[in-house]
Amino acid sequence: MQTTDENRQWSSPSQEQSILLPTISQEVPAAPRKPKKDYLLDEKLQEYDDPLDDNVVALIDQLDITSTMDEENDDNEEMTHYLNSLVEDIKSQEAEEGMTANVAFDMAVMSRQRSEGERPHDELLNHYLFQIPRLKDQIMWSKYITAYYKYADVYNFPSWINPSYLKDVNGHPPEDPTFNFGRIWWPGPREGKKSARPSITKPTVVGGGNKPGFDDRMHFTPAMCQYWDIKSQAFSNILFFKLGKFYELFYTDAAIAQEILGLKWMGKDQKAHVGFPESSLCHYGKQLVDLGFTVSVVEQMETPDELSTRKQQGATQDNAVKRSVCEVYTRGTLTHEKMLGALPSYLVSLYYGGNTNNCSTNDGNTNNCSTNDGSTDDGQYGMAFVDVVCCHVQFAIIPSERDLRNVLGHLCPKEVILNKTTAKKSTIELIESFPCPPTIVQPASGAADSEQVGYDILKAYLLKCNNEDESIKILEWIANVPKEGFRAIEQLWLYLQDVLLAERIFTCGSFNAFEETKNHLVLDAVAIEALGLEDPIASSVTHQGASGAAGQGVVQQDLKTGELPSLFQCINRCATVMGQRQLRQWIHYPLLNIPQIEQRQRAVQFLIDRPSLVSEVGQMMRKLPDLERQFGRISGDLLKSERGAVYFSERSIGRRISSYVEFLKDLSVINDVINRIQVSLEDRGSDLVDTGRVAALVKETYNEALIMEVVRGSLVRIESVGGGTASKNEFRPKTGIWPDFDEKDSAVQKLKDKLESYLSKGAIWKTLGIGRCSGCYIHSKYRYEVEVSEQDWKKVQRAGGVMTSTRKGYVRFQEEVLQQMVNELINAETEAELTLHPWLSDEIRLLHQKNDAVIGTLKVVAELDCLMSMATYALELHTWCFPQFVDDDQHIFLDTCYHPIAMITNPRFIPNTVKIQGTKSIVLTGPNMGGKSTLSRQLALLILMAQMGLPIPAKEANLAIFDRIFTRVGLRDVLAESKSTFLIELEEVLEMLKHATHRSLLLIDEFGRGTNSKEGTILAASTLKYITHKINCITLFATHFPLHNWLCDHSCAAATERGHPCVTYQHLAANIHQDTVIFTYKLADGRFPESYGLQVASLAGIPSHILQQGMTDE
């Protein structure tokens, strides 16, 4: 039984729900049933072994599925057959889709209705739509359903997007397992116009609901037919559709954008419709992408005049200018500078290959894929990832889920391509558990049946896009990639094709194996979070930092907001965005090689000794934009040998040429920076050993001759026109460089001369047939407007002048001949500009041939910037030193050392001296709030900074080299994985026991507190014994448990006697004065007798009578 429009009961979304939640009421009015057959229905439903709930039974009642059967048929054979098959459908759907009984029932009934040509019942449809397993997690699906039903009675939506009739391009409805939400069916212009119904009443206004007044013909205008041709192929995306100077959104997209972006409704027609100007594209696009939407940007590919020309030539009968999708925005594929922060924005492709003992490559060789300790996991992953702006592709084989967590923790990707149907559930939960989880997207269709077929397809694509030498270089790299890695690259390539970036990446990109985990101290995701290496919104550092506002400015802002700054924020003094990204890389991957660390130390010391050089070079570097990304964008312009999209707010080719010229000039600035540093190096004489890494960068890595050859060779072929400030200059090829442009530009100059003569010699007054008026021409709202006084305007108006703009006391006008001449000039300029696209492409190709030299130069700048940042950081410290490294895995000496973050937030921070020699395990005791956790983190941060080559806040330091830092500090649970705090503690300690070596550093804080004190003590003691005996690495074990009874045979005297490793006790001292705890925060030998929990509770403000009552009860 169908409900009418009047019977629908919709509820408006609350302010909290907004458009993000379904708004359909689930109240189902009771419908009469035929009592004669009730018992048959009830009996049949009882046969189902998973009883349906009351809501579904009510839906059965409302469907009245017995009403169409023959009432005189006493044996009810038809009904029995119907219900039997219905129950079978339900069971089948449950098995295949993992649905609940209720959802499976909805799906089975709807499938029956559709197969019989009926429209599904509205309430049943909505009961099911939000629960379809394949679709319910897609943000666009729920927003589309909600928006449709919210505005269906207000605006005229075309019938094919009604959820009741929605089907994909293959005719499958949403409940079909193969339904493709991204590509839907629409009737097309010819069929649609035949069935469109005209308006028969007054058009509906917002707030109305007069359905017969809707005019379906509005969906089939030339522009709307274009819209639906594109939208039907990207229905799961928000479509920004270009009309003139505005991007406009229609139908459910408009409803979604209006509520999320706060856009105003446009027009007074029946179509849901919002829009915004061309200049706001990045602003609104970024907001939608941050919420998880995918945005397709449709641009005009020709002007109206070009369309008219095509029609006059008989080349087309179109009534709308050409349009096509030019950009697709997702979280991991943004390229516009205004939409990005300073840190990398990675798109990661993961391919789960299952459990194998080795990783075979495409050429039959094998690569070892075991974990770091030689153990195997239950499956390995191929991973490929790319920074789409810089066009840098890397791949890796990830041998275990643990390693995957670590790598993703370092990368902080924005988007992960992963097939949820084949990936392990734990992998999906792992990705979703990150503080800022990436968006998980399904791989695009089109993967080859075998690696060899896929390789051949990719080979053909590369040969089509690149020259043969470039293609062979990439193909050789891919041929040596293990199979899992190739599948990940294939997934990445297919997805990049969908977002229109494949040609750019695979033509202009660089390809490397990801090797950052080799020869570096390993920090897992837990340690990164526990040590506060960077803000989890991480990636929130903006370009402001590159203009000198980084470092202390960021820290001071955090102090104002009460938030503890990250290590990155505390030490970042970089002048460029490139330096910031490099510094983050150094923080995540400290060095293991002592000579490399000492080389950095010498470089930083060289710069510390020359503060004026650091200041001068820093000022020069602050003028540099993000050249790595700018070079990526310029390389992408290599592909644009034609104009492409039409933009109205700025001349696209002019902007691109200016960007290219500015990049060349910035390379000249880099050359000046390096020459200035070379002067300082030469001042030291011939001994360059003490300069460390600086000399290697400036003298060996940087190729001045090659870079300046490119810069000077390109700039000599370009001239600046327009005068004014440099930012307003326009650039073009010098005369004789590009003959096609010279020819067109000559025609432009002739037309300008003609206009000048027409206006300056008074010919315009003769055309108007009036005497000469005092006036001049200007370029204001329009080009070549003639300005006259208001008094003269009266004569001009009578003679046929057309007002174009005004200012106080004056009127500006044009007349027919002048307008015709201006249009001729504009057309000639357009033709001249079209010749510049292939010229610029050729210029960029010359630059791209020196790709390795340019990328190497930018890396030199980033590394120099990091070294200067380290030097600046040291100069701001009142106490600092460079640690000395010893080849002894049992040695830590830090004299008067500070916590690098806490010393900034708390100027009265009390330093400590830490000495660990001849012992491995330290049991750290002390009162609550005494500073145990702070000291643990302090030790780890100072070791990490030391192995970066960074000066540390201490008077003196002698350290061993550590290969990994493990942490079990702080409390947290993972609700997404249904893991308690205690389980998380156990898993983190288990990771240490599995993977720590004798050169690792373990920080364990209050392990075992998640259970009772007896069990906690046993857990803590047995764990510490195992670490001491089996792993034998330096461990800081902070606890309140009385472990001395359990570890008596590990006291230094007993251990020496038995030949066992030694366990010592240290504590952070405190005093009691008048029942009040006074913390000294000083590290001392021995155990601390009490925890002083009640005194700390009193300090925290717990009323004394409550504490006294508790002690009385005890």
From TrEMBL:
<protein>
    <recommendedName>
        <fullName>DNA mismatch repair protein</fullName>
    </recommendedName>
</protein>
<dbReference type="InterPro" id="IPR007696">
    <property type="entry name" value="DNA_mismatch_repair_MutS_core"/>
</dbReference>
<dbReference type="GO" id="GO:0005524">
    <property type="term" value="F:ATP binding"/>
</dbReference>
<dbReference type="InterPro" id="IPR016151">
    <property type="entry name" value="DNA_mismatch_repair_MutS_N"/>
</dbReference>
<keyword id="KW-0234">DNA repair</keyword>
<keyword id="KW-0547">Nucleotide-binding</keyword>
<dbReference type="GO" id="GO:0140664">
    <property type="term" value="F:ATP-dependent DNA damage sensor activity"/>
</dbReference>
<dbReference type="InterPro" id="IPR017261">
    <property type="entry name" value="DNA_mismatch_repair_MutS/MSH"/>
</dbReference>
<comment type="similarity">
    <text>Belongs to the DNA mismatch repair MutS family.</text>
</comment>
<feature type="compositionally biased region" description="Polar residues">
    <location>
        <begin position="9"/>
        <end position="26"/>
    </location>
</feature>
<feature type="domain" description="DNA mismatch repair proteins mutS family">
    <location>
        <begin position="1000"/>
        <end position="1016"/>
    </location>
</feature>
<dbReference type="GO" id="GO:0006298">
    <property type="term" value="P:mismatch repair"/>
</dbReference>
<dbReference type="InterPro" id="IPR007695">
    <property type="entry name" value="DNA_mismatch_repair_MutS-lik_N"/>
</dbReference>
<comment type="function">
    <text>Component of the post-replicative DNA mismatch repair system (MMR).</text>
</comment>
<keyword id="KW-0238">DNA-binding</keyword>
<dbReference type="InterPro" id="IPR000432">
    <property type="entry name" value="DNA_mismatch_repair_MutS_C"/>
</dbReference>
<dbReference type="Pfam" id="PF05192">
    <property type="entry name" value="MutS_III"/>
</dbReference>
<dbReference type="InterPro" id="IPR027417">
    <property type="entry name" value="P-loop_NTPase"/>
</dbReference>
<dbReference type="Pfam" id="PF01624">
    <property type="entry name" value="MutS_I"/>
</dbReference>
<dbReference type="InterPro" id="IPR036678">
    <property type="entry name" value="MutS_con_dom_sf"/>
</dbReference>
<keyword id="KW-0227">DNA damage</keyword>
<dbReference type="InterPro" id="IPR045076">
    <property type="entry name" value="MutS"/>
</dbReference>
<dbReference type="GO" id="GO:0032301">
    <property type="term" value="C:MutSalpha complex"/>
</dbReference>
<dbReference type="Pfam" id="PF00488">
    <property type="entry name" value="MutS_V"/>
</dbReference>
<dbReference type="GO" id="GO:0030983">
    <property type="term" value="F:mismatched DNA binding"/>
</dbReference>
<dbReference type="InterPro" id="IPR036187">
    <property type="entry name" value="DNA_mismatch_repair_MutS_sf"/>
</dbReference>
<keyword id="KW-0067">ATP-binding</keyword>
<feature type="region of interest" description="Disordered">
    <location>
        <begin position="1"/>
        <end position="35"/>
    </location>
</feature>
